[in-house]
């Protein structure tokens, strides 16, 4: 048995050849679905889960699902693994039938896990609050059941959010998440206080606790102040430093069952989340190091190749990123929906290169194959086409057609219109309102998706865009006398100014950038439609002051944005950036220049104390 467990502990971190050593033995254990199944002990369960995870990372998604399915109605790890695979599939396809299948699988998994949890009596529940819990009285199976139960509840909550449109579903989902977090914290206490020396699988349990506690704290700490306060009001709180440290500890438990999952979460945070929702403050060197052993074990794994490409992208190595994304696509064809993630990134990579026709090609593929937001993809196609220099009559007709289709394709997901679809519809209508043109629509897209944080890493690409922006600003400035005849003149001129300021900030021309942002803000009363430009410019100016260490000026601008501007396009997107800027500001103000630099360590601070009005707003939203 000791030999078997040693194999189990190391199998995830070996290649396919090592997995073959126990593949045949496991195949002999896995019977046909219609036969009575033997009960599996925890040793075999974790061994099988390890193999299924390795299959999944090696793009053998169907085999991973089939490995888990036979015992999914009676074994906690098989039930959790099977439900997780179906959940990932449902999220990628966004097909309601797949969502329903995943929900039923997770419901069953919750029941299976619950059966294996430690049973509590009424008297035990009453005395639990008065006495210290004896975690040594739990069997090893029972503590793993707690962990699997928490993971299943979390997936069930996420499926609830995307399944139904009504408020009751969101409340139910929130309650499930709250229960899930409570169980993770209980598992954390078990990990700290359990003294049983005979636990064979402690490393697997601890890697799961690290993943749960780390992911929860990191996720919650990223939320804007109002949402944060609402979550704290109903029992949540998040600490970014704890989240990052727990996930990193999970990565260091190399033989832990969930170690690579911790690595994926950290790499995703540093290369994706901080760029989409934050200030691009991710630790790219750490993410690169975390990914190396994953790529060594799974050199053709589509997931790891995707993140390898994303890391090249955020470094500004766009051509290398394109090659890696294409390699990820070619590595598997079983889950074609995963290709859509690569198409999305390839679209932006070609945008960054100002290769508008290639960018349009990938937007077209997404429009045909992805179920997410055809309105968004169609608007992107039209925006890229506008940027092309060769504007024939046929091109103009096709552009008109694409913009006219956008409002028809708008949809509702989970009872809400997608914020970006509202933006795309408004811009499409604007195209026709001002006589069949838009000002720099593709560069505006790059900006609102935080793409300049990547373009800014490549001065050649940035300078190319700046030339286009400056030419547009000069052209619009020459037509200033026509402003009284064109109600959208100030909107167009102000957009071009904002883009110029962003480019100059990334080139290090801070004084010129500041002048652009201030001029945008001064045009607030002249704007007819694009009111979002003023709060966005105010936050840009705050970020600029943050890097100049004008901390009080930065704080005042962030407060002004939060208090003075409401109900503008893409408001929630800016609130995430505002929150990230507040975190960096707090970190910078609490650290001295010798031990902490804004460019290296900022963004890893904890959540901060919210203002009293946030708490009042949260209570109102809760009502």
Automatic annotation (TrEMBL):
Gene3D superfamilies: Tetratricopeptide repeat domain
Taxonomic lineage of the native organism: Eukaryota, Metazoa, Spiralia, Lophotrochozoa, Mollusca
InterPro entries: IML2/TPR_39, TPR-like_helical_dom_sf
Ranges for region Disordered: 1-20, 591-623
Natural source organism: Biomphalaria pfeifferi (Bloodfluke planorb)
Bias-annotated ranges (Polar residues): 1-10
Superkingdom per UniProt: Eukaryota
A Pfam cross-reference name: Iml2-TPR_39
Protein name per UniProt: Tetratricopeptide repeat protein 39B-like isoform X2
């Amino acid at each position: 048995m000791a030999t078997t467990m040693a194999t189990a502990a190391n199998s995830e971190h070996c290649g396919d050849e090592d997995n073959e050593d126990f593949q045949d033995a496991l195949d002999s254990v896995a019977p046909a679905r219609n036969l009575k199944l033997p009960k599996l002990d925890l040793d075999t369960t974790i061994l099988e889960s390890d193999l299924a995870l390795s299959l999944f990372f090696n793009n053998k998604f169907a085999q991973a699902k089939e490995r888990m399915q036979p015992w999914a109605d009676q074994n906690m790890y098989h039930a959790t693994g099977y439900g997780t695979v179906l959940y990932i599939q449902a999220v990628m396809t966004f097909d309601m039938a797949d969502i329903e299948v995943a929900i039923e699988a997770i419901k069953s998994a919750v029941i299976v896990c619950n059966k294996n949890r430690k049973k509590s009596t009424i008297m035990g529940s009453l005395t639990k609050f008065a006495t210290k819990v004896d975690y040594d009285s739990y069997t090893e199976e029972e503590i793993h059941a707690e962990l699997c139960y928490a993971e299943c509840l979390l997936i069930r909550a996420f499926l609830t959010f995307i399944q139904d449109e009504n408020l009751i579903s969101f409340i139910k989902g929130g309650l499930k998440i709250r229960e899930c977090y409570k169980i993770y914290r209980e598992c954390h206490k078990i990990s700290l206080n359990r003294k049983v020396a005979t636990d064979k699988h402690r490393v697997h349990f601890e890697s799961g606790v690290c993943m749960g506690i780390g992911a929860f704290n990191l996720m919650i700490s990223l939320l804007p102040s109002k949402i944060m306060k609402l979550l704290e009001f109903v029992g949540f709180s998040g600490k970014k430093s704890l989240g990052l440290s727990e996930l990193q500890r999970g990565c260091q438990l190399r033989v832990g069952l969930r170690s690579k999952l911790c690595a994926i979460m950290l790499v995703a945070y540093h290369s994706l989340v901080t760029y989409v929702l934050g200030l691009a403050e991710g630790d790219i060197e750490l993410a690169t190091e975390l990914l190396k052993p994953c790529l060594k074990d799974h050199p053709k794994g589509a997931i790891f190749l995707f993140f390898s490409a994303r890391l090249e992208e955020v470094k500004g190595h766009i051509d290398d990123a394109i090659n890696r994304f294409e390699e990820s696509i070619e590595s598997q064809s079983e889950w074609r929906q995963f290709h859509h993630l690569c198409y999305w990134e390839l679209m932006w990579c070609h945008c960054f290169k100002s290769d508008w026709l290639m960018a349009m090609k990938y937007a077209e593929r997404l429009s045909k194959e992805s179920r997410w937001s055809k309105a968004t993809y169609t608007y992107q196609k039209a925006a890229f086409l506008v940027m092309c220099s060769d504007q024939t009559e046929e091109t103009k007709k096709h552009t008109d057609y694409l913009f006219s289709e956008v409002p028809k394709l708008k949809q509702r997901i989970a009872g809400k219109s997608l914020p970006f679809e509202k933006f795309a519809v408004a811009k499409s209508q604007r195209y026709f309102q001002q006589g069949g043109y838009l000002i720099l629509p593709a560069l505006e897209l790059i900006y609102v998706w935080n793409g300049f944080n990547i373009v800014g890493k490549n001065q050649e690409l940035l300078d190319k865009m700046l030339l286009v922006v400056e030419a547009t600003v000069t052209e619009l400035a020459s037509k200033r006398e026509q402003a009284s005849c064109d109600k959208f003149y100030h909107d167009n001129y102000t957009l071009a100014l904002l883009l110029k300021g962003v480019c100059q900030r990334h080139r290090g021309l801070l004084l010129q950038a500041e002048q652009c942002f201030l001029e945008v803000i001064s045009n607030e009363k002249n704007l007819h439609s694009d009111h979002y430009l003023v709060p966005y410019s105010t936050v840009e100016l705050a970020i600029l002051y943050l890097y100049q260490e004008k901390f009080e000026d930065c704080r005042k601008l962030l407060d002004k944005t939060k208090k003075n501007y409401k109900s503008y396009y893409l408001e929630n997107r800016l609130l995430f950036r505002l929150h990230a800027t507040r975190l960096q500001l707090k970190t910078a103000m609490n650290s001295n220049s010798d031990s902490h630099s804004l460019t290296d360590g900022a963004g890893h601070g904890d959540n901060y104390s919210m203002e009293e009005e946030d708490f009042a707003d949260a209570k109102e939203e809760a009502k």
